[in-house]
């Protein structure tokens, strides 16, 4: 029983981290119909920027906030200079953002080298937290789970309970009508893109604190975000959460029982969902 509970908690931790990254990707890819293949680079950039800010100021929270803001600004700059002129040309969007991700990854590698970095979170996040049956579980991992819950709740309230969220949903359904009513559609779209990029930067600090920061993490989390959004359904926040849970549990239980085929299990899950429901489990039909 203790083994299965620990395994489930580990799966929840991984799923929470995947959701933190994929929620921003779902906003950009699902709601805006913008193919942003630089989302993994945003994650890695946020991790490194947060590490620098936290090291310089001695405040992990400042690193967390600073990374989110810095990556949101970079995302805005990328959208204004590279993506805005491409319109709905998804192939060109993919090629341009892949190139941007390669440049960012090489610049980060040149500056930080190939070594692994580790955050120093606040003392309160060190050690373990007593839990029933398992006795203790790493506090930082519980923080990852709590962060995913808070981000998910915040995004749901933003999209479904605010005027900004109403404009976002209206812009997704019919941009022309929204523009004809006098609303600045481009400003709304820029806000969503900046929010999605900022969430990736936030996830970089949280993921770097629970795990580590190293080259190659950008490709890993880009791939995981793609799989999560494909399984859950584009533009669906609940779908991103469900997809992250399925991938997290498939990955961790696969590593425990069939380690040689754990990665294959994840992609088999994606293929099965695409075969039965191509728009994703909670995507629009």
Automatic annotation (TrEMBL):
Pfam families: BPD_transp_2. GO terms for molecular function: ATP binding; transmembrane transporter activity. It is found in: Cell membrane. GO terms for biological process: amino acid transport. Keywords: Amino-acid transport, ATP-binding, Cell membrane, Membrane, Nucleotide-binding, Plasmid, Transmembrane, Transmembrane helix, Transport. Signal peptide: none annotated. It is a multi-pass membrane protein. GO terms for cellular component: plasma membrane. Its main location: membrane. This is ABC transporter ATP-binding protein. InterPro entries: ABC_transp_permease, BCAA_transport_permease. The chain crosses the membrane at residues 6-29, 60-82, 94-119, 139-159, 188-211, 223-247, 254-276. Belongs to the binding-protein-dependent transport system permease family. LivHM subfamily. The lineage of its organism: Bacteria, Pseudomonadati, Pseudomonadota, Alphaproteobacteria, Rhodospirillales.
């Amino acid at each position: 029983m203790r083994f299965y509970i620990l395994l489930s908690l580990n799966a929840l931790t991984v799923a929470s981290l995947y959701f933190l990254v994929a929620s921003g990707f779902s906003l950009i890819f699902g709601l805006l119909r913008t193919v942003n293949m630089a989302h993994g680079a945003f994650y890695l950039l946020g991790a490194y920027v947060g590490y620098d800010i936290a090291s310089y100021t001695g405040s992990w929270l400042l690193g967390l906030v600073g990374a989110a803001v810095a990556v949101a600004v970079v995302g805005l700059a990328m959208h204004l200079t590279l993506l805005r002129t491409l319109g709905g040309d998804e192939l060109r969007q993919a090629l341009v953002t892949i190139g941007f991700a390669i440049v960012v990854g090489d610049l980060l590698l040149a500056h930080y080298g190939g070594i692994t970095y580790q955050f120093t979170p606040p003392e309160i996040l060190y050690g373990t937290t007593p839990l029933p049956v398992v006795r203790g579980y790493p506090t930082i991992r519980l923080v990852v789970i709590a962060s995913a819950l808070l981000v998910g709740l915040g995004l749901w309230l933003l999209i479904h309970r605010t005027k900004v969220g109403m404009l976002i949903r209206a812009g997704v359904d019919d941009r022309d009508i929204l523009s004809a009513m006098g609303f600045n559609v481009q400003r709304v779209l820029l806000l969503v893109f900046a929010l999605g990029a900022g969430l990736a930067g936030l996830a970089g600090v949280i993921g770097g604190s629970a795990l580590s920061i190293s080259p190659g993490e950008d490709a890993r989390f880009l791939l995981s975000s793609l799989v999560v959004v494909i399984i859950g359904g584009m533009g669906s926040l609940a779908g991103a959460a469900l997809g992250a849970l399925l991938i997290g549990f498939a990955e961790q239980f696969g590593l425990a029982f069939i380690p040689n085929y754990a990665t294959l299990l994840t992609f088999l899950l994606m293929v099965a969902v695409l075969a039965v429901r191509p728009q994703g489990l909670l995507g629009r039909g």
